[in-house]
Amino acid sequence: MSNLTRTQKIRSIIAASSGNLVEWFDFYIYAFTAIYFAHTFTTSDNPTIQQINAFGIFAAGFFMRPIGSWIFGSLADKVGRKKSMVFSVILMALGSFIIATLPSKDSVGDLAIILLLIARLIQGLSVGGEYGIAATYLSELATEGKRGFYSSFQYVTLIGGQLLAVASISIMLLIFTEEEMSAYAWRILFIIGGILALGSLFVRNIMDESATELHKHEDRGTLKALLKSYKPFLLVLGITAGGSLAFYTITTYTKIFIVNAGMDKTLANNVFLIALFVLMIFQPLFGLLGDKIGHKTSLIIFAILALFGIYPIFMLLNANIHNATFVFALIVALFVMLSFYTSVAGIFKAKLFPEHVRALGTGLGYAISNAIFGGSASWVALQFKNAEIENGFFIYVAILMAVVLITALCLPKKSELN
């Protein structure tokens, strides 16, 4: 465990969190601008098919996460959390700059979408490493009794990245028309993201190392060492499968859903902007609640609420799409149930593993399930919609929530955690 002073811990948390925020801003700007640039890279004239192609690439980026988690998680367990976090943010900047300068299908034909895919794979590699290292780093800085509160800042900045992405679009729409956004202005956001990512390198250099006993294990950061912790690894896989699906369904697909249901794009963006701010504020509060009632209990509450709540809330959104106030209230309700998961997600995963494989186990377990079930959420939902059986997607979500509930009930007691 880290022996840092309180001042060093606060400084390190701020440094780690700010870098985390920038990385997720870069990653999510794609999700929220896809409706503007989808036509630039695909030959179809069907808006739904354009979105399917764009979010298919969004999902493909997630399949690089396990590789990124393996590379950067192993590096973090071998040479330290700080160095690995610096390397990951450099990759994110590279991906953003590539997307900003990509040629359109009118210039290079089908090569355009291939180049977009390559850029997203680079970004997927970056965030694949980021999640596990950040969760591990914050858990190792946390003091007993406040671990949920400390670890909640990972999702404060993760959601903050989404919030900044949505806010930046709102600002852009004050400056540019929707036609200009679709034509060229969306590229500006990726340039800004790349610059911010490079700027965060300076901030991360002031971080202190959190791990203290890595050198004691010759097999640290290896898959062989991780194999000895296969039980917690399976638990992380099970809970992340549904947790990630719920996260991306609620924080990403909801906006697409209300726009496709008939809400004005600008209004939907503003409603979501305010709601995401509320979600960000929720995280430390629910982190403190998790410290009081137990992290396992928080996950069980999330699973039950999501199992029975997501489907009917989306049906209410569809039926009341022209009532912005009610739509906002329903989105906040979704965010409340999600916060029982996000506020403790990092800490429960990290504390399942011993220190010498913590970054690798946390990141790889998260990335595999996230790649399969999280990043594909919008793509799968749009496939159901295109097949005119959109409600089938929410049945799929409910099944995964049942998996989360069963897995959460199998989590060890607090005394058994590392």
From TrEMBL:
Keywords: Cell membrane, Membrane, Symport, Transmembrane, Transmembrane helix, Transport. It is a multi-pass membrane protein. It comes from Helicobacter didelphidarum. This is Alpha-ketoglutarate permease. GO terms for cellular component: plasma membrane. Pfam families: MFS_1. It is found in: Cell membrane. It comes from the Bacteria. The chain crosses the membrane at residues 21-39, 51-73, 85-105, 155-177, 183-203, 233-251, 271-290, 297-314, 326-348, 360-381, 393-411. Residues 12-415 form the Major facilitator superfamily (MFS) profile domain. GO terms for molecular function: symporter activity. Belongs to the major facilitator superfamily. Metabolite:H+ Symporter (MHS) family (TC 2.A.1.6) family. PANTHER family: ALPHA-KETOGLUTARATE PERMEASE (PTHR43528). Its main location: membrane. PROSITE patterns: MFS (PS50850), SUGAR_TRANSPORT_2 (PS00217).
